[in-house]
Amino acid sequence: MHAKGLHRDPGESVSVVRASERSLMLVAGEPSGDAMAAGLVSALKGSLGQQENLSFWGAGGEAMENAGVEVLIPLAKHGVFGFFEVIQHVLKFRRWMQQLVDHAIARRPKVIVLTDYAGFNLRFAKSLRKAIRRSKGSWNPYILYYVSPQVWASRADRIYTLENNVDCLLSLFHFEKKWYHLRAPGFRVEYVGDPMRAKYQDLFPEADKALSTPPSMVLLPGSRQGELKRHLPILREVLEHVQRRVAKVDCCMILTNQEHLETAKGLLGSLPGLRFQEGGLSQALEQADLAIACSGTVTRECAYHGVPTVVFYRLSWFTYQLARKLVQVKYISMPNIMLNREVFPEYIQQEACGEKIAGKVLEMLQTASMRQEVRDALAELMVEPATQRGFHQAAKVTLEYLQT
Asked: Within the chain, which residues score under 50 in pLDDT?
């Protein structure tokens, strides 16, 4: 058992029977976690070579399937956020969690990698640890957690769930390792870096970027159905305000799947100059002068492409009231958190309305110095060399546990 006070390095000898030498389980929810897990698998395969017969299986989505993972439960399609939203799906998630525990007991993977998706994966880690204890030493896998829950932003007590149930945390951001060390010095945290940063290292604009003719904007309403429901009407208002002031703007809205694309077309399809696209965010950002983005993983993509971005988010009333009591950081977007100042303007809840967001968008479109000031600040995120970080570093740590 690897519990609190018993964490050990992967090379440390044990007397119990180890788990399957040829099996790695992964659990990821939502498109961003699905992509992270898929990238890790691809890096592991590249490191292991063709001779290594290691099977990958678990819960996730299309990206993991494309990487060669046997996806038993399509968890990535069912991302929800917010108190009431989670309550509505609690029975379904409990059923899937038990199914995954049963699969783990039956297949006995040597390493289990939980990727992001803290609402599900922290509970799953506790369930796994209970199952491992019941095995009385006959099964003793390593549990890794890839992408730290934002315990430094809210509900810091979740650190104890990690410390008691996880063998190693693979962290994307340097400040997280220091945060954990101060509060749980015995818990292994490895800074592996943000693979998104490594991927886009060469795409950050080096020189001043002139405004396109017509101006080009990318719209990012979110990857969850609930986010689309709340954010699409806001973006419609924003575009209506902007189009009354600017003769022509080329806008591209990026959606994560065909269902979301059809939903967006149904509400905003009549607006002139607006295109809808499934995927292809990086290519769209390379051409963009500005982005309007729902807070989330995509704000990092905007930052790493050097695109000035207006960030917004709206929650259900009850979830927002709860979040106000729990959240302990000034900003909601990771670029602002990393830079410790508001580089991307943020509009939350009632502030996230068409008129206010459009006002800031117009100001940024019309002021070259403002856009350049944002790009200069974002360049600070790109100072550290990223070539040895990201998926390859995460794979290196994972291999330590696989190859003991």
From this structure: 3-8, 10-18, 82-84
Which residue, 318, 315, 319, is CA-closest to 351? 315
Bridge partner list, 348:
313
What does pTM read for this prediction?
Answer: 0.84
| Rounded Cα–Cα distance for residues 218 and 203 (Å) | 16
Q: What pLDDT is recorded for position 229?
A: 94
Q: What is residue 49's predicted lDDT score, i.e. its pLDDT?
A: 79
Query: What's the CA gap between 204 and 55, in Å, rounded?
Result: 36
With beta carbons less than 8 A apart as the criterion, state whether 186 and 7 touch. Answer: yes
Specify the CATH number for the domain of residue 226.
Answer: 3.40.50.2000
Q: Which residue do the tokens 């982005």 mark?
A: 291
Does 374 share its domain with 328? yes
Enclosing domain of residue 369: 203-382
Residues 299 and 351 in one domain: yes
Residue 71 domain flag: yes
Residue 15 lies in a domain: no
Closest CA to 249 of 291, 304, 203, 301: 291
Mark whether 119 and 153 lie in a shared domain.
yes
Contact residues for 292 (Cβ-Cβ < 8 A; gap 6+)? 217, 218, 219, 220, 235, 238, 309, 310, 312, 357, 361
Q: Give me the residue label for tokens 């509505």.
A: 88
Domains in the chain, number? 2
